[in-house]
Amino acid sequence: MADATAPYRIKGETGDWEVVVGLEVHAQVTSNAKLFSGAATAFGAEPNTQVSLVDAAMPGMLPVPNRECIRQAVRTGMALDAVINRWSRFDRKNYFYADLPQGYQISQLYHPLVGPGEVEILLDDKDENSVKQIGIERIHVEQDAGKLMHDQHPTMSYVDLNRSGVALMEIVSRPDMSSPAEAGAYLRKLRAILRYVGSCDGNMEEGSMRADVNVSVREVGGELGTRTETKNVNSVRFVMAVIEHEARRQVEVLEGGGQIVQETRLYDPDKNVTRTLRSKEDAHDYRYFPDPDLLPLELDEAFLDECRTSLPELPDDKRKRYEGLGISAYNASVITAEVETARWFDGLLEAGAEPKQGANWTVAELFGALNRRGEGISTTGISPGEAAELLKLVADGTISGTIAKQVFEIMLETGDAPSKIVEEKGLKQTSDTGAIDAEIDKILAANADKVAEYKAGKQALFGFFVGQTMKAMAGKANPGVVNERLRAKLDG
Ligand code: MN
């Protein structure tokens, strides 16, 4: 069996190569207004309907920092165990592009809002000890640019400034990842934390999260190689594909006697290749300088306290708490991977479900059904209260596990409560030994040959008799009683 924690290597002609990966993630801050203006941020609005004079860079307009955006970035930093810088400053990053009316982006280069932190990833979700810490170098806040539209007119390009000025957190990792799988685990974990915190919706399809992927290769244990940066990759799967592809390309170049040039590349998902966008020679000189329109940000204790106390229980803490309740490491990690699932499961526990049984049922039955039906936890009609009721009917012996599966299917179809279904369909489990004995006697009489084999030592046949009896009782017999009565009749 493959060892998920074994080091990832590229097999080259000349030997094995290691891969070094760092990610810069741009995450759109969840906020009703932009970073420095009051314009709305809703996704999918008609072009240029959410643009203030600040976002359009009209002369004389002054930016005013949005407290909520700063608050969300600070809370995110706290959730990543990061240093929060009580003093930070905005800089202008100057460049010309048609989607950037100001001619500069307000960002933070020299004094970011958030300093070093870390994200813990699980390399193998069945092994709680297979953890690795991925360092966070910094988080700074900055403005997003507008969007050019090249497909609206045969000879002209249009610009939509709805996104211009929207608040982004740029989350810069250290180059601590060494495989596509680690980068995937990091991105999923980071996304989960942001969604728990509520600072970013993590919706990669809508561009709320996109990653710049830094990749280099080196001979095992050798010196760090030159890296390339692949820009704006917008899914976890694509990030993993970029690393795989880019690492192999670099190994091929190096083994062919070439050199890697530091450059910016673009990923083409249709062809699954990266190609050069611009090399270091024509890199921008951004001429950063402190934005004269904005005072430095100074955070006071009361603000920081509010940020801290407003944080929810985070995925790692929740996972450990679940494990402490007797839930398996695997189930705990699956349930806590998405904030909606974790909230639903907390509801199940609050409704009185036994943790271990509840987790087994949630992962096997509920997630199985949701997958089959193409539904999500937030669109399912199964409430934690109803699920807890179903589990309680099994736990107190009212119905068997087999019948519970049937009841659950009916719940999914009709939305009815489990006790109502059990009542209406007459699905209650019976421990009536008279009825069970009568069925057993019929089965033993009809299978005299198998009874003889069993008595001659073929113990495995016991399961056959149990199965036949349960079938004859339409799954409604108490399995404990069936076992006990069969033992009495066959072995007694
Ligand atoms: Mn940036």
Would you kindly provide a brief summary of this structure?
The chain has 492 residues and is an alpha+beta fold. Helix content is 39%, strand content 18%.
Description of the structure:
With 492 residues, this protein is of the alpha+beta class. It has 3 domains: 297 residues, no CATH class; 112 residues, no CATH class; 59 residues, Arc Repressor Mutant, subunit A. Helices cover 39% and strands 18% of the residues. It contains 15 helices and 16 strands. Strands 1, 2, 6, 7, 10, 11, 12, 13 and 14 form a 9-stranded mixed sheet that branches. It has a 3-stranded antiparallel sheet with strand order 5-4-15, with no helix packed on it. Strands 3-16 form a two-stranded antiparallel ribbon. A hairpin with a 4-residue loop joins β1 and β2. The chain is elongated. The model has no long low-confidence stretch (mean pLDDT 93). The protein binds manganese (II) ion (MN). The site of manganese (II) ion has 3 residues, from loops.
The amount of beta strand, in percent, is: 15-25%
Named once each, the bound ligands are: manganese (II) ion
Shape descriptor: elongated
Intertermini distance: 45 Å
Q: How many helices? A: 15
CA-atom Rg in angstroms: 30 Å
* Broad structural category: alpha+beta
Largest sheet properties: 9 strands, mixed
How many separate domains? Answer: 3
Kindly state the mean pLDDT as a whole number?
93
Helical content, roughly?
A: 25-40%
Weakly predicted, low-confidence segments: none
Question: Number of DSSP strands?
Answer: 16
